[in-house]
Backbone:
């Protein structure tokens, strides 16, 4: 098991680091009393958890002083662990606290700089023991994510770092509010107006065959797949974790469903992490249901 203890200065980015670890499959626990680390490590072993991370900082108050005793226990019992320490300059930390309008936990009624100085002294020993120290002074969130992925996500192939959802929908029921990319395929001939196809949906072979044989569809799919191959690696580089690609037709039952299925199949064949959802495919059966 890979076991990471995340610690460091308040405002240095522990929250974002934890989010990044969660995104690459770590079981994360924030602000667990250090005295419980031995029990937690035993539970992880017993539960077959392969990757776990604990966030430890001075928010634990007097309990933080128990950290070194717990680390000694782990060492004596041959339990492997790593310490990730997040640091930042005083100037940047003061700016972050002022922007967030938060007080420093060690100086709730005084100057932020006083709290930072006190915290540095308190964390000096754990910093000296750290396996990895990341100075986030000049980092944007995407830069910190990239660092975390580099150190702890080496088993994650780049194509799997972004989760893609291909979502079909009907424009008459509204555009999904969580969409990142929205495409209108109402320019493709509509199977709804062909009597023998109307009763089917885009998951059924007759409609799928009709939609995919249209010249407009063939041209659209070709250009669309080419665009996604360009966009996805750049989204990953920027630290994006989820991409919602919404494909819409009039009712969300025929054209959008068939085309969304085709796009999802192509992404899976290319090795990307993709899944399919059809929001309005059964809308006629769910009249009045509220849509996002």
Residues:
């Amino acid at each position: 098991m890979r076991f990471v203890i995340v610690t460091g200065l308040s405002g240095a980015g522990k929250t974002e680091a934890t989010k990044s670890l969660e995104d690459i499959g770590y079981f994360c626990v924030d602000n667990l009393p250090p005295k419980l680390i031995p029990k937690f490590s035993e539970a992880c072993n017993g539960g077959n958890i392969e990757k776990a991370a604990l966030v430890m900082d001075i928010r634990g108050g007097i309990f933080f002083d128990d950290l070194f005793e717990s680390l000694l226990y782990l060492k004596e019992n041959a339990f492997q662990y790593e310490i990730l320490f997040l640091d930042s300059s005083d100037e940047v930390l003061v700016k972050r606290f002022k922007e967030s309008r938060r007080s420093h936990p060690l100086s709730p009624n005084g100057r932020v700089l006083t709290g930072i100085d006190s915290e540095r002294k308190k964390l000096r020993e754990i910093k000296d023991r750290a396996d990895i120290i990341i100075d986030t002074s000049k980092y944007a969130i995407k830069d910190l994510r990239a660092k975390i992925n580099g150190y702890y996500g080496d088993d994650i192939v780049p194509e799997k770092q972004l989760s893609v959802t291909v979502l079909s929908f009907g424009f008459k029921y509204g555009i999904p509010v969580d969409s990142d990319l929205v495409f209108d395929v109402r320019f493709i001939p509509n199977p709804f107006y062909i009597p023998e196809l109307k009763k089917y949906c885009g998951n059924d072979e007759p409609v799928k065959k009709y939609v995919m044989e249209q010249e407009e569809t063939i041209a659209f799919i070709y250009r669309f797949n080419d665009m996604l191959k360009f966009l996805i690696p750049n989204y990953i580089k920027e630290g994006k974790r989820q991409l919602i690609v919404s494909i819409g037709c009039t009712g969300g039952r025929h054209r959008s469903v068939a085309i969304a299925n085709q796009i999802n199949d192509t992404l899976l064949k290319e090795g990307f992490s993709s899944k399919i959802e059809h929001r309005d495919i059964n809308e006629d059966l769910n009249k009045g249901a509220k849509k996002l």
Notes: The chain has a mean pLDDT of 86.
